[in-house]
Design a protein that fits this description.
2 copies of one chain form a homodimer. Chain A has 14 helices and 26 strands. By secondary structure, chain A is an alpha+beta fold. In chain A, α2 crosses α6. The longest helix of chain A has 26 residues. Chains A and B meet through β2, α2, β3, β4 and α3 of A and β2, α2, β3, β4 and α3 of B.
Chain lengths: ~500, ~500
């Protein structure tokens, strides 16, 4: 029984939900706003974690772990931060339950009220900087380059699997530096790491840029972002890196002795990506048949399906299939051989198409006789029969081609959906249609807010690589030095 | 400035704290009962995770992720479970803070009270079985072999770093099976996986056994445990695997259709180990000089320290040291070359001894001339000078020897501290002195409780491999079929 996927042009949002559910990636739980990440979805996250973790370590970072709970008062210490994060959050007020005196249920024990409420971390700057005060005394203790893999909670009212949930998984880097320029260098280095990861592993082209003041992280002096264009023409913020200046060092009184013996506040950064990336991955590549996975992040890159009538036929096929599997694994390709007799080949074809497995190999009795094997690509749905003797190299080649093809397809989609507009009417019209809209803006929050109210579009970023260009703000008519990207967003 | 370690025979508990702090493993945080796991301690946990995860996957398990929060009512569904876990826990009652009307602080918004309180998971059986109800319909959906890496919270009143903290990191396996015998087989398989991990990676001998009814997991019909003897003669429960029978399936109404078309409740298991293992690792091998790490779990297995006076000397040494490092890395050995000029060699020697790095290599100018290198073992403190040409193989050999030696030393310690006693007086005397005390027990909870009250000792386990032996309970005089292990414990 094939699961049905709503076509994108019929109902994009339903299409997304159908993919998440149909490909067994995640589901809603009995706890409002919290998701269950199912094994296949989690396997993608594990791949992402493993690659990112390598990149973090290659750039000199180490992992550590800080408490899940943050005392309420910590939030009040950084003025901008408390407004951004301490409001919608999970608040722990008690530490004990007891049997009800009235009935069979259990109730909160009012005698076990905390003196100070604890907040489930929405992000860890405060608890980490409270800790760094003890770790940093001298310039010798710097830089401190630490990352944490963790769960965080933000009490979102409208949730969508992977894209916006109350609890989600992420990593958060928190670094401490002796100088401003070193901290800025780190902020930029990490947004580049994210960009490289998005492009090389997710096959997802991104625009690197900086956020306007109103879109900045609460507590940052500068926020760098990578923005990706989804298939419905909306932008998705896929990762951010924040230059926090001395804001948290001042809030938590973290000073160090310089080489010259002076006392100075420490400079800092933080940066993160989350399970939201899985949502971005889905909306970048998938089609109306289901999920499409780039080989570099697929839980298994190849599935082999046998076609047989008798056990005798299956035995012969098993032998060849297991040999192919071994040969592929030997060159580092991950393979699943699905010879379960509980499901028909047609069911398996549909299942692995829905799950986005990059390559399907099919082996029948005729193939065994002819020493052939049929290869089907998930990205372009091509089917070709190859001689089996060289199939390992062929698969390797095609996996690389799929990875490139997915990136190029996404890039060409973005290029086709990037627009340079120069009048207010064109702007409003294009924002409604979707895409990245490059336009001049006068640099003020007032105009930014006005545009947001009028069109629901926000400035996604001021691209790092865009050229200087004299122009006039489409809304205020004031002078502008360069274009910024407007779009509706997730 | 060397950090001081209190000797074990002076104050064992202070010795433990000194090691945890001195070796930079963890520290208390500003949040009551929650620890910060520092980078060096976390690196040991990452090694443990990576090896365990491989073993779980080799035995057919996959990872997934379930919500951090559990609705209060879920706990009431399994009678034994609620008593064991829902009492001392972190309770979320509100989901918003607001600015105080009185002063500058932020306060709980009483308008944002949850209809039903949420509990921060102390263990995930309830939320997972609420989910499994949707995943399991037919025998085709079984077995379900899932593991989760997560943080959990138990509101402990007396906490010790790694050994007992309010929040800790762990993995919890939750499996579902069609038959009782399959579930029991899984329970036993996983306690064997833990035992193998403890012995092969932690170099820590363990006794496998089953818990008595009063020491069982709340909700289990049978709990298997691995118990390790610490240097102070106390036992540490290092991992448990629970046969949950149909208890959670009944509580959450999880039935499946058998091959024969009947509806039956699912059988289940759960099993877990936690960051507590780091505490066990410390107390198994470390000495009065600091941490001692088995090579198989050391964040880096070898440290190279240069001894030089001039920059010219250092340049020469750098060249040779980097070459040695490369050669070692080529055969899979992890190496740190510490040529920082901010610290003297003596400081470095003390630091890496304290941190338990298995092998230290020292290179001076004389060594360069003679093509030699000095090797110091952390386990037995031996120092030998070797010719540099074959040092990679030598190091490899010695690492294996250290791993074996640590295990044998711990095993011999346990053997010397395992006692067979046959009178009440000897029992009380030996329990006071410490060690594993093998004694006859009549099999009743009454006697077990009596002994606990009298001596503070509990039955650590009924060992799986102990022989049948007729005897009489030391306290009640009733008949007994085999000896059980008594000890004081962590």
């Amino acid at each position: 029984m094939a699961k049905k996927i709503t076509p994108r042009n019929k109902d994009y949002s339903q299409w997304y939900n159908d993919i998440v559910q149909g490909a067994d990636l995640a589901e809603s739980s009995g706890v409002r706003g919290c998701m269950v990440i199912k094994p296949y979805g989690y396997a993608i996250w594990e791949k992402m974690q493993s690659e990112l973790d390598k990149m973090f370590k290659q750039t000199g970072h180490v992992n550590a772990y800080f408490p899940l709970f943050i005392p309420k008062s910590y939030f009040s210490k950084e003025a901008a931060h408390v407004d951004g994060f301490a409001k919608e959050c999970a608040v722990i007020t008690h530490y004990r339950l007891k049997n009800s005196e009235k009935d069979n249920s259990i109730v909160v024990d009012e005698n076990a009220k905390l003196e100070e409420e604890l907040i489930v971390r929405p992000t860890s700057e405060t608890i980490i900087w409270d800790t760094y005060r003890k770790w940093i005394q001298s310039y010798r203790d710097l830089p401190l380059l630490i990352n944490q893999w963790a769960n965080v909670v933000r009490w979102e009212m409208r949730t969508r699997l992977f894209l916006r949930t109350a609890e989600f998984l992420w990593q958060e880097g928190h670094t401490a530096h002796a100088t401003k320029s070193e901290a800025i260098e780190e902020t930029e280095k990490m947004i580049k790491v994210y960009s490289k990861f998005a492009q090389d592993f997710m096959a997802m082209p991104v625009v690197m840029g900086i956020k306007t003041a109103s879109e900045r992280f609460a507590g940052a002096d500068q926020t760098y972002t990578i923005e990706a264009l989804m298939q419905d023409g909306k932008s998705l913020q896929a990762g951010t890196s924040h230059f926090l200046a001395q804001n948290f060092a001042k809030a938590f009184d973290v000073k160090f002795t310089t080489k010259e013996g002076k006392q100075e506040y420490v400079w800092s950064t933080s940066w993160g990506v989350s399970t939201r990336l899985i949502g971005a991955l889905i909306m970048t590549h998938s089609d109306d048949r289901g999920l499409v996975l780039p080989p570099n992040l697929a839980p298994f890159q190849v599935v082999i399906v046998p076609i047989y009538k008798t056990d005798k036929e299956l035995n012969k096929i098993n032998k060849v299939a297991n040999d192919v599997k071994l040969r592929l694994e030997k060159i580092g390709i991950s393979v699943k051989y699905d010879n379960r007799d509980t499901h028909k080949p047609g069911w398996k074809f549909a299942e692995y198409e829905l799950k986005g497995v990059p390559i399907r190999l099919v082996l029948g009795s005729r193939d065994i006789e002819n020493s052939t094997i049929e290869l089907a690509r998930r990205d372009n749905l091509e089917k070709i029969t190859y001689n089996i003797s060289n199939i390992d190299n062929k698969v390797n080649e095609i996996l690389e081609d799929i990875q490139k093809n997915l990136f190029n397809k996404a890039l060409s989609f973005r290029e086709k959906n990037s627009f340079y507009v120069d009048t207010k009417e064109d702007f409003i019209d294009q924002i409604e249609k979707g895409g990245f809209v490059y336009a001049h803006w006068d640099g003020t929050s007032e105009t930014e807010n006005l545009i947001k109210q009028k069109t629901k579009a926000t400035i996604r970023c001021i691209p790092l690589d865009s050229a200087d260009e004299q122009g006039y703000c489409l809304f205020s008519g004031k002078k502008s030095e360069r274009r910024v990207i407007f779009a509706k967003s997730y």
